[in-house]
């Protein structure tokens, strides 16, 4: 995938969007601290993710973008990984994540003909991705229909957010 994305929604907007994913009385614990807008997220940078909590329920937490190649996981795109990614940092164990990709839709193909991230818009799709067996969840690996994305910035080297 490309080497940059942005997360410009407020922490409250992220929590509100995630609140539709749990079922029943499940709670989302926000472990992100004071989360500012993140106009430039590069590989190896931390970013917010939603994941099942170890004791049940859900966690909005931070994880490092980028899994080593080849990824060493079976059921998802988040794992705990121990490695030396930067010599100055030495060996570290981090929560790491990667994007699931698919063939691009019309809007993305103009800019990046190789692939686009899978984007799930409905809470029931997000819930299925996070909880279903892998064979069932991978049916969600598809592009958004043509016309569902708007290009909001092109050609700039820096995100103005």
What's the β-strand tally?
9
How far apart the termini lie comes to 21 Å
Q: Could you describe the largest sheet, including whether it forms a barrel? A: 5 strands, mixed
Q: What is Rg?
A: 16 Å
**Structural classification:** alpha/beta
Helix content: 10-25%
The overall pLDDT, averaged over residues, is 80
How many H/I helices?
4
Low-confidence stretches: 70-76
The arrangement of helices and strands along the chain is EHEEEEEEEHEHH
Beta fraction of the residues?
25-35%
Morphology: globular
Overview of this protein structure:
By secondary structure, the chain is an alpha/beta fold. Helices cover 17% and strands 27% of the residues. It is built from 4 helices and 9 strands. Strands 2, 4, 5, 6 and 7 form a 5-stranded mixed sheet that branches. Strands 1-3 form a two-stranded antiparallel ribbon. It has a two-stranded antiparallel ribbon with strand order 8-9. A hairpin with a 5-residue loop joins strand 4 (46-52) and strand 5 (58-65). The longest helix is centred in the last third of the chain and has 9 residues, at 123-131. It is globular and about 40 Å long. Residues 70-76 have low confidence and may be disordered.
């Amino acid at each position: 995938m490309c080497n940059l994305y942005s997360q410009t929604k407020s922490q409250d907007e992220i929590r509100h969007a995630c609140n539709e994913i749990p079922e029943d009385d499940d709670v989302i614990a926000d472990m992100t601290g004071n989360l500012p807008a993140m106009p430039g997220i590069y590989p190896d940078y931390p970013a917010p993710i939603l994941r099942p909590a170890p004791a049940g329920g859900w966690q909005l937490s931070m994880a490092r973008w980028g899994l080593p190649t080849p990824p060493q996981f079976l059921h998802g795109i988040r794992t705990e990984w121990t490695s030396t990614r930067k010599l100055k940092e030495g060996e570290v164990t981090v929560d790491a994540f990667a994007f699931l990709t698919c063939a691009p839709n019309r809007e993305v193909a103009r800019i990046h003909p190789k692939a686009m991230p899978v984007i799930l818009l409905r809470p029931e799709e997000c819930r299925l991705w996070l909880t279903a067996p892998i064979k069932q969840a991978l049916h969600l690996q598809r592009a958004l229909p043509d016309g569902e994305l708007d290009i909001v910035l092109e050609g700039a080297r820096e995100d103005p957010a």
